[in-house]
Write a structure and sequence with these properties.
Layout: E1 3-13, E2 16-25, E3 31-40, H1 43-51, E4 53-54, E5 57-58, E6 63-64, E7 68-76, E8 88-91, E9 94-95, H2 101-104, E10 115-116, E11 133-137, E12 141-143, H3 150-153, H4 156-169, E13 176-180, H5 184-195, E14 200-205, H6 208-217, E15 221-224, E16 242-247, H7 252-258, E17 262-270, H8 281-286, E18 290-293, H9 300-309, E19 319-324, H10 328-335, E20 343-347
Parallel strand pairs: 13-14, 13-16, 14-15, 16-17, 17-18, 19-20
Antiparallel strand pairs: 1-2, 1-6, 3-7, 3-11, 3-20, 4-5, 7-8, 8-12, 9-10
Length: about 350
C-alpha cells in the first residue's frame, strides 16, 4: 500500500489545531480514494477543538477532524466494480464491522467495533476527513446527483442523523411537533418533520439567527426562549399539545421544561447530547410519555443523498459560510458564533 502525503486539519490538544501533512493512501482491494472538496464542522469537532473531547472520549494522539465530507473519486483499488474515478460522492463516515451481534441483528449503527471517521472513541483514533485526500471502503462512497453541490452532499451525514431520529419518532404525518434547540441538527429535524407531513412544527432556541433558518426551512412558529421564557405555557392546557418532541439541545431545562406541553402518550426523542440530566419521572409516568434515544444512522445515509437529489429536502439555507481549510481557525471561530452561523464548511481546493 503506497503512502504519500496531502494536507489536513489536525487537532493535537484543546485549541491546538494545525494544517499539516497527513498520509494519502493508495487504495487497496475494495477501496477508493476521494479528493475531498467540502467538509462541515460538526458539534463534535467543536468539542474536540474546545475541550479535547466530550464525556469520557478524549484525544490521546493527533487526529484529523471531520466526518461531514464529500468529494470526487480519483482512484479505485482492485476489485472495485461499483464506482469509477470521476464519480461525485458523499462519504458515509460509518464503517460497521458486519460481524458483531448488533450488525447481525440489523442494528449496524450500534456496532461494537464501529470505525467512525474523525472519532477518538477508539485508539488508535479513527482519523477524520478534513484533508485533501481520503481512502475509504468503496461502499462508503455514495454517488450524488449532478444537481447536488459538494456543499449539499457534505450535509448527508447530519441529515441522516435526523432521518434516523424521525424513524425513532414514528409516523409524523399530521402530527404536532416541537423541536427544542436549533443548531444544525435541530433545524434539519424541522426539515425532516416538514418532509414527513407534520401539521405543525414549533421550534425553540435562545438565538434569533438559527430560528430564522428554522422558519425558512419549514417551522410554523419559532420561539426565542430568552425573550419569551413562558412561551410554551400556552401549549400545556388539557394535558399538553404536542405529539412529538425532538430535543436537540442536550440541555436539561429544554427537556424537562417542555414535557408539560407534550400530550399524554406523546413521544420524546432525545437527539442532542449533553451531560446526564434529572428527569421528572412522576410526570413521565402519569402522562405515559415515551422517551426514546436516537444514535447515528445506517440505511438513512443513502436516503439522505436520495432526498437531496430529488429536491425533496433542501439543506442550502443551513449553509452559512464556506472557508478554505487553510483558514481552519477562522472557520472554527465562525462555527461557534450562533448569531451568524448554522453550518460552516471547509473547502479543500
Amino acid at each position: 500500500m503506497a503512502v504519500s502525503s496531502s494536507l489536513g486539519v489536525v487537532i493535537h490538544a484543546p485549541k491546538d489545531l494545525h494544517v499539516e501533512a497527513v498520509p494519502s493512501v493508495t487504495p487497496g482491494p475494495g477501496e477508493v480514494r476521494v479528493a475531498i472538496e467540502a467538509g462541515g464542522i460538526c458539534g463534535s469537532d467543536l468539542h474536540y477543538f474546545n475541550h479535547g473531547g466530550f464525556g469520557t472520549v478524549r484525544i490521546r494522539e493527533p487526529m484529523v477532524l471531520g466526518h461531514e465530507i464529500a468529494g470526487t473519486i480519483v482512484e479505485v483499488g482492485p476489485e472495485v466494480t461499483t464506482i469509477s474515478p470521476g464519480a461525485r460522492v458523499a462519504v458515509n463516515p460509518s464503517r460497521p464491522c458486519g460481524h458483531c451481534r448488533f450488525c447481525r441483528e440489523g442494528m449496524r449503527h450500534e456496532c461494537v467495533d464501529m470505525h467512525f471517521i474523525g472519532s477518538a472513541m477508539r485508539f488508535p483514533h479513527a482519523q477524520g476527513g478534513f484533508r485533501q485526500s481520503l481512502t475509504i471502503r468503496a461502499e462508503q462512497a455514495v454517488p450524488v446527483a449532478d444537481t447536488v453541490s459538494m456543499a449539499e452532499a457534505a450535509m448527508a451525514e447530519p441529515l441522516s442523523v435526523c432521518l434516523h431520529a424521525a424513524v425513532q419518532a414514528g409516523p409524523l404525518q399530521g402530527k404536532r411537533v416541537l423541536v427544542t434547540g436549533c443548531g444544525p441538527i435541530g433545524v434539519l429535524c424541522v426539515a425532516v418533520a416538514r418532509h414527513a407531513g407534520a401539521a405543525e412544527i414549533v421550534a425553540t432556541d435562545i438565538a434569533d439567527y438559527p430560528l430564522s433558518i428554522a422558519r425558512q426551512i419549514g417551522a410554523t412558529r419559532v420561539v426565542n426562549m430568552l425573550e419569551e421564557p413562558d412561551a410554551l405555557a400556552s401549549y400545556t392546557s388539557d394535558k399538553g399539545h404536542f405529539d412529538v418532541q425532538f430535543e436537540c439541545s442536550g440541555n436539561e431545562r429544554a427537556l424537562a421544561g417542555a414535557l408539560d406541553a407534550i400530550r399524554p402518550g406523546g413521544i420524546v426523542v432525545q437527539v442532542g447530547l449533553g451531560g446526564d440530566v434529572k428527569l421528572p419521572i412522576n410526570l413521565i409516568v402519569a402522562k405515559e410519555l415515551q422517551l426514546r434515544g436516537t444514535f447515528r444512522f445506517d440505511r438513512e445515509f443513502p436516503l439522505a443523498v436520495e432526498l437531496m437529489g430529488r429536491g425533496q429536502i433542501d439543506v442550502k439555507p443551513l449553509l452559512s459560510a464556506t472557508v478554505p481549510f487553510r483558514n481552519a481557525l477562522e472557520a472554527f471561530a465562525l462555527a461557534q458564533d450562533r448569531s451568524r452561523a448554522v453550518k460552516v464548511q471547509l473547502t479543500f481546493a
